[in-house]
Structure formats: structure tokens, C-alpha cells
């Protein structure tokens, strides 16, 4: 059956019978039998003020810069280009990829914006990211790592988050934005079609919001994007994000076996910090909630990767909620409901400078999450490094002994096999 016909049938919701078995074996990573253990290279080719506050410090008290869009707009082309080139060349280097491999990780997920791939006329963004992406793939190959490429920002913004490139409204599905997103995916797939030994997966779009977007159009985009990747390469898995909808009740049945598409990975992001209720949970409740995700991720009808998660149990990290904004946890966020505690050691600083009690809680929480998220295809931590947010800094957390080495060992085994909280002092 022709690809287009299969897609048309699949899009129409008709079952497509496969003449051949699915071709998972052609992928250079065995997503059936091996666990994805990865880190995101966040804040590198797509800026996030809270990951690299030094770049945004001039606007700490205002001035209209809150994301990469306004950063490039306010600085202007040549100044923005200079600062970004310097950032790209230094924030992630070959030494990082080597260290990532040396601590037992096997994947890196690399966010990249449409503006690096398919710039849209009138945008202020600057280009030049792709040579660094090429390098990262070369370094990953040298280190024995696999790469998940991740289109993190779409024109118009798919979620209005600053990490989409542009904070504010959601306008991804208006005008030519969706076709331009598909063109960006095509550029990505074409550029790395001969690197499928390393680039084992491409994520069509990070965190498209289920609010402010039409889900039927999003699903059509997923089929079209899958087609763009698949016509270019049969050896690349296609990653779709769950749009913050239930990975089982909403997504089971979509793009599953029998829908005419193959090698699809569902990406879900698990954070317990973006509501008042969640930042109000105690460490035992955070562990319990992490464990409860285990059966959830285990029960999907397609591969599932927890593509983002963190050691943080609060939203204390400076600017995590946006440049200049405070935290729900200490009630400094606009409209925050309750004061839950102070952000000492978590607002900014180093892993070594965290409070002892926070280190202990983080260690239990991390291991519980590893237990839960390995129940399906694996996980990718957010993020490898930050300038000043300790609980999000996989590199330093590992160096400090707060992440198990090897990654499969446990100091606190069996947390998800009991309803008893194992954290000392938190019974
Ligand atoms: C990470 O470790 C490096 C090297 O020790 C240090 O310079 C940096 O401040 C640390 N950052 C965090 C957030 O822990």
C-alpha cells in the first residue's frame, strides 16, 4: 500500500492492515527492549531565561525581554547573533556529551526552534544553530549516544510558553503556521537522513497545548509530520507529545499498531510543581505521585518516553515561571494562593549549596521516578545543566551522588512496591 493511501485511510480512521511486520528492528536503538535513559540539552539552541539567566540579566527589572523572540528583537540582529554564537559555542561542548555517556545515559533530546530550520519573514530571530546541532550529533556519535531531535518552538507558538521562543498567545494553527511547521520538520528530517545511526527519533512538536489549539488539526498535523519524516527515512522513530492529555484514555488507539503508521513514540512530561496543590505536597506525597505514574506509562499501546521530568518538588527556581516572576511555593507568583515554605537553597545556587533535607528528599524522589518511568520505554531528564537552578542540573546532581550510579542501582529500592513512605523523618 502506498504511503499516501495508508495515511489517508489512517486519517479517516479506517484500519490499515500491514502486509509486513513493523520495522522496529531497523532503528539504531531498540525501543522495544532497551530503556531510554537520557537528558535534555535544554537552554542551548532554544533560550529559556531561567536556564541561562546571565543572558537575560540586563532585563531583570523590565525592558520587555522575556524570551528568545524579544531577546533578538530588542538586541537587534548583530548583537543578538554575537551573544548567541558565544552561548552556542560554550554552553554545550564535546566534553558534555562525553560526560553524559560516561554516567550511563544513552540519549540526548535536543530542542531546536523552527526559526533555525525554516525562518519566517518578519521574525526577529537569528540563525546559526544548525552547525552546532551538526556538531552535537557528531559528538553524540563519538560518545555512543542516540539523539532525539525535538522541534521545541513552532511559528505562532503552540503553547504560549517562553520556551516555545515566544511567550504569550497561542496562534500556531492560524495562517501558514502549520504548513511552516511541517516544512521545518522536513528540513530537520532531510538534514539528518544519513545520520540515523545517531538520530533515532524526531519529535514533531514539543508540548502543543490542548487548550487554544484544535485537537483534530493537531492529530492531522501528527499524521502529516509522520509522513514528512517517513518519506525521508524509514529508520527514524517519530515522537508525538501528549498535549497534556491522558496517555491512555486519550491517546491509546491513536497511531497505534494497525493505524498504518509505525515507529511512533508518545512523549509525556511529568512535573509536580505547576499548581498550588502540587507545590503543597510533602516529599512522601511527591514520591507516591511519582509511583502512581508507573502503571500509567506502562499501559500505553505505543512506545512511551517520559521526555521531561525533574528533581524539583517546588517551582522555586528563579524565573522558572517566567522572567521576573516568582514562585507559587513562597507565594511570590502573581495570584499564588498559599505560602508553603521558603525557597532557600532552591531559588538559585548550586547543588552543593542545597539544604541537606532537600538533598535527601530529592534523592528519594529521583529514584522513585526512575522506578516508575522505566516501566515503559524510558525517560529523559530536564535538563543536563543550568546556570543556577540546582534541582534541575543532572550533571551536578550526579557528581554530588544524588543520582544513582550506575543508573540502575538504588540506595532506596522498592519505594513503589510499598505504600509506606521510606523517607526518614517524613512518616
Ligand atoms: C555545577 O558545578 C560546577 C562545577 O563545580 C559549578 O561551577 C556550578 O556552579 C554548579 N552549578 C550548579 C547549579 O550546581
TrEMBL record:
Which N-terminal residues, if any, form the signal peptide?
Answer: 1-19
Key words, A-Z: Cell wall biogenesis/degradation, Glycosidase, Hydrolase, Secreted, Signal
Tell me any Pfam family this protein matches: Cellulase
Q: Lineage of the native species?
A: Eukaryota, Fungi, Dikarya, Ascomycota, Pezizomycotina
> According to its UniProt record, where is this protein mainly located?
secreted
Mention one GO biological process in which this protein takes part, according to its record.
Answer: cell wall organization
Start and end of every Glycoside hydrolase family domain? 78-272
Q: What is this protein called?
A: glucan 1,3-beta-glucosidase
What does the record give as EC number?
A: 3.2.1.58
Amino acid at each position: 500500500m502506498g504511503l499516501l493511501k495508508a495515511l489517508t485511510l489512517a486519517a479517516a480512521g479506517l484500519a490499515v492492515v500491514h502486509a509486513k511486520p513493523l520495522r522496529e528492528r531497523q532503528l539504531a536503538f531498540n525501543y522495544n527492549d532497551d530503556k531510554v535513559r537520557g537528558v535534555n540539552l535544554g537552554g542551548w539552541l532554544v533560550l529559556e531565561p531561567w536556564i541561562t539567566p546571565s543572558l537575560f540579566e540586563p532585563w531583570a527589572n523590565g525592558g520587555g525581554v522575556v524570551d528568545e523572540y524579544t531577546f533578538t528583537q530588542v538586541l537587534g540582529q548583530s548583537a543578538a547573533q554575537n551573544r548567541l554564537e558565544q552561548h552556542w559555542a560554550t554552553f554545550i561542548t564535546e566534553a558534555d556529551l562525553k560526560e553524559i555517556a560516561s554516567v550511563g545515559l544513552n540519549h540526548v533530546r535536543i530542542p531546536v526552534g523552527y526559526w533555525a530550520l525554516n525562518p519566517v519573514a518578519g521574525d526577529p530571530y537569528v540563525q546559526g544553530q544548525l552547525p552546532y546541532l551538526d556538531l552535537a550529533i557528531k559528538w553524540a556519535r563519538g560518545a555512543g549516544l542516540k539523539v532525539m531531535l525535538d522541534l521545541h518552538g513552532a511559528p505562532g507558538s503552540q503553547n504560549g510558553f517562553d520556551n516555545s521562543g515566544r511567550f504569550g498567545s497561542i496562534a500556531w494553527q492560524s495562517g501558514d503556521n502549520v504548513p511552516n511547521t511541517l516544512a521545518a520538520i522536513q528540513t530537520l528530517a532531510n538534514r539528518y537522513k544519513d545520520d540515523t545511526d545517531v538520530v533515532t527519533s524526531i519529535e514533531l512538536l514539543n508540548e502543543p497545548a490542548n487548550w487554544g489549539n484544535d485537537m483534530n488539526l493537531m492529530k492531522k498535523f501528527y499524521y502529516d509530520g509522520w509522513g514528512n519524516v517517513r518519506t525521508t527515512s524509514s529508520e527514524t522513530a517519530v515522537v508525538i507529545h501528549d498535549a497534556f492529555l491522558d496517555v491512555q484514555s486519550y491517546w491509546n488507539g491513536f497511531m497505534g499498531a494497525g493505524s498504518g503508521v509505525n515507529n511512533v513514540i508518545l512523549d509525556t512530561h511529568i512535573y509536580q510543581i505547576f499548581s498550588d496543590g502540587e507545590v503543597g505536597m510533602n516529599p512522601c506525597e511527591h514520591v507516591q505521585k511519582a509511583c502512581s505514574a508507573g502503571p500509567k506509562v506502562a499501559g500505553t499501546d505505543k512506545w512511551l518516553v517520559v521526555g521531561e521530568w525533574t528533581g524539583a518538588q517546588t517551582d522555586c527556581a528563579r524565573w522558572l515561571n517566567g522572567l521576573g516572576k516568582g514562585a507559587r511555593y513562597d507565594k511570590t507568583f502573581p495570584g499564588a494562593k498559599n505560602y508553603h515554605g521558603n525557597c532557600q537553597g532552591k531559588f538559585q545556587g548550586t547543588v552543593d549549596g542545597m539544604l541537606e533535607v532537600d538533598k535527601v528528599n530529592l534523592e528519594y524522589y529521583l529514584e522513585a521516578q526512575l522506578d516508575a518511568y522505566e516501566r515503559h520505554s524510558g525517560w529523559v531528564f530536564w535538563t543536563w545543566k543550568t546556570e543556577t537552578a540546582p534541582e534541575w542540573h543532572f550533571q551536578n546532581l550526579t557528581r554530588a551522588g544524588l543520582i544513582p550510579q550506575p543508573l540502575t542501582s538504588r540506595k532506596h529500592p522498592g519505594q513503589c512496591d510499598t505504600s509506606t513512605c521510606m523517607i526518614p523523618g517524613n512518616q
